[in-house]
Amino acid sequence: MHTVIHRSIARARDVDPVGAFWSCVSLAGETSPVIGTMEAALAALRLVPGVAGVAVAVDASQASVLDAGWEGGAPWCLVTGPADGDPRWCSPAGGWALLQPALAGRGGWAQAPLDGAVTIVPVGGPSGQVTLALAIAGADGIEADAARRAALLPVAASASAALNALAALTALQSEVVRLAGENHAIGRLNRLQGRFVAMASHDFKAPLTAITAYTEVLLGQPGNEAFPQSAEFLGVIRSEAARLLRMVDRILDFTRVEFGPQLMTLAPAMLTDLVQEAVRALAPVAAARRLQVVVEAPPGLPRAEVDADLIRQVIVNLLGNAVKYTPAGGHVRIVLSEEESSVAVSVRDDGPGIPSEDIRRIFREFYRAEGAAEQAEGTGLGLSIARHIVQLHGGHIEARRLPEGGSEFRFLVPKELGELTALPQATGLDVAPEKASQVISVVLRAIGELTGSMSVALLLVDGRGALIPVGSMGLPRNAKRMQPVILTEGWRRFLMDGHAQAEPAVVAGDAHGGPWAGEGDRLYCPLVDGDEPLGLIIAGRRAGEAGYGEPERHQLDVLTRIVATALRHLEGQEARVLEALQVLLQARRSGIPTSTPEALHLTARLARALGLSPADTRRLLYAATLHDAGMARVEDEIVLGAAPLSWDERDEVDRHVEQGCELVAPLVQDPVVRGFIRHHHERMDGTGHPDGLAGDRIPLGARVLAVIDAWFSLTKDRPYRRGLDPAAALAEIRQHAGTQFDAAVVATFAALVDPDGAVAPRT
Ligand code: ADP
Predict the structure, then answer these.
(1) Alpha carbons 57 and 95: distance in angstroms, whole number
(2) Secondary structure of 728-757 in the HEC alphabet?
């Protein structure tokens, strides 16, 4: 902090010391104001005729009041001789306390870092306390001392005035910070209020219009007996008023939900029922427009874990739009389906469709496509409300224009989890029950989505020699309830082997078909922590779906190691582990290619070709699965939307490598793997991030990841551009071999993806 910034003393040469002080002092600027005052005083005192040296000392405790950046223990005395130009900082022995007698006019400054007789005067700070001491050394003698004092006093008075101004400035600055904070809070409140009003007006309009219209008719009928329908009209008013009240409650709930998703009441619900309710509610409008509405749901559709009221509102909004925007005589089709970890609802219509330039903006508040105003009344809020609700559920919503015309709106919400048992105490997973069930839920969903498995089950070893089912997702309807399994020697051997298998011998030998007997392909994946079996994950596909291949087995081996690490390191950092697992899930949803079975398989082949040991290959695959997940989250935060990153933003993402590492850190205990993840944005020429490592100093694993990343990000199709064909992508990577990428890794990689030296361009 004590960087002495040279002020131009020359500027002050021809003026008196006080004038020199004021021309040098700067209270706000590049240097600390206290240091600025000290430097100015020093410069001024050097102009006093006949000085042999000058010093300015500061009471560190006072300085830190005026300048929050002042470090305790830092040098506290700035000193110079008249001839040498460089003032230097030092800490004379004895410290500030030893100056007290001298400042009180009793004796000199014995430890002064100056030669000769020293005259010293105090400088009062804003609180009246002595804050600085100014000292000049020169010839011995009473007269010389008096002359020096006469020169010192006006400079001391100026320095005191400067320190007072500085105190006022500091107070003002902290006031500014406080006001800025308040302003921010008020801004947020304002926005919330705006959103509340907007939502309220959107949903209040219809019932209010009805109430007003009916009331007007009644008012126009003096003597109600003469108007036979008055009872019916009053009934409408009452029911509409009740509807309005429900909406007020709903909106209040909704605003509350925004602040705490924990206020949602999640429970298993059959989405088909919610869809049917919405269809019934809109039937009169659909009939009036002669629209055909059909609902299709596959048998055995699982229930979803949702707040039924909120999701009903999403369906009503989507169906309402379909009905509203589809011309008379059109068709609306609602299709429900099961996805890996979710239930999906798609609403299709054969209306005008949404112009493609509007698709990305359609979910924004108040956004209406061009021409919408002529087609139907609306405010542009229904879809933003729908998106908000779906996101609160951790789901996803999207819109597209159908090739045959019309629109499709599709949303996914988490499917119901099988019974979650409390974690067996004896497993040593010491964690609060609600946190445990959140972790289990994310584990099941992440495994399901990353591996394309509709069913996933998690069993943990308890201390009494059994594998206990603690959670499951999407088990086939006909699957019988999962049972605990006795941890026989055979099971122990299988678990300790640590590799996913289709049907381990121990299951084949079990008359009951193992913990879960169902149709479709299954993989049994051991969870191991060091020398201890921790549990088992079973991932399954539906009968009729393609089975698991070797790439999927590799992927599951890596994922189970990550899950084992997460479970083992839960204690005391549940929230961080949960966040890290969620990041993994998000990676799949944002289409990060590097953790797909194919990418991991390619990485494993490259590792083998480079001669990496099996242990290092395992580490590399572990890093490959996680390294981009954290980055994806960071990227999402930097640029929302599908536009390509600008150079600034790219640079911004690079700078956030550390933040990405931090997100996945709870899942990475091995320091070597941490190194791979941390350094995958380094460049061979040393211009990368975050540490600017060059050449061999970048861990080999990180150099491999850099090439794999580049390959997938170049070849992958994005919403805003088509991926390059393999030949062009390889040429691009080769062009940067040696500067960005490790040339040897690039050569081995090229031989792997292009063994004949001529990749066929993509057709
Ligand atoms: P609103 O319907 O009140 O305008 P929404 O947020 O529900 O607000 O919809 C936003 C815009 O999306 C609409 O103005 C319309 O342009 C477009 N839109 C929504 N659904 C459809 C649909 N099914 N077909 C065509 N356009 C649609």
Answers:
(1) 10
(2) HHHHHHHHCECCCECHHHHHHHHHHHCCCC
Instruction: Tell me the CA–centroid distance for residue 370 and ligand 1, in Å.
Output: 10
Report CA(362)–ligand 1 centroid distance (Å).
7
3-state SS assignment for residue 354: coil
Quickly list DSSP for 479-542.
PPPP--EE--HHHHHHHHH---BSS-HHHHT-TT-SS---SS-EEEEEEEETTEEEEEEEEE--
pLDDT digits (tens, 9 = 90+) for 138-151: 888 889 989 999 99
Give, as one character, the DSSP assignment of residue 15. Answer: S
From ligand 1's centre to the CA of 747, what distance in Å? Answer: 52
Q: What is residue 64's predicted lDDT score, i.e. its pLDDT?
A: 74
Q: Among 321, 326, 358, 411, which is best to mutate for testing ligand 1, by the most ligand atoms less than 8 A from CB?
A: 321
Q: Which residue has the tokens 């005191």?
A: 160
**In the chain, where the domains are located:** 17-180, 261-409, 417-564, 590-763
CATH, range 261-409: 3.30.565.10
Tell me if 362 CB under 6 Å of ligand 1: yes
Pick the CATH number of 590-763 from 1.10.260.40, 1.10.600.10, 1.10.3210.10, 3.30.930.10: 1.10.3210.10
| Architecture of the 417-564 domain | 2-Layer Sandwich (3.30)
**Ligand 1 center to 317 CA (angstroms):** 9
Gap from CA of 387 to ligand 1 centroid (Å): 13
Atom of ligand 1 nearest to the CA of 349: 23
Look at residue 328 and tell me whether its pLDDT is greater than 90. yes
Question: Is residue 156 in contact with ligand 1, taking CB distance under 6 Å?
Answer: no
Do 44 and 36 meet the contact criterion of CB atoms below 8 Å apart?
Answer: no
- Angle of helix 230-259 versus helix 142-219 axis, rounded to 10: 160
Is the beta carbon of 321 within 6 A of some atom in ligand 1?
A: yes
Pocket test for ligand 1, best of 324, 325, 365, 370 (most atoms within 8 A of CB): 325
Q: pTM surpassing 0.90? A: no
User: To 10 degrees, the CA torsion angle through 390, 391, 395, 399?
Assistant: 70
Q: In what order do the strands lie in the sheet with 522-529?
A: 485-486, 466-473, 455-461, 532-540, 522-529
Q: Are 383 and 338 in contact (CB under 8 A)?
A: no
Residue 68 has pLDDT above 70, yes or no: no
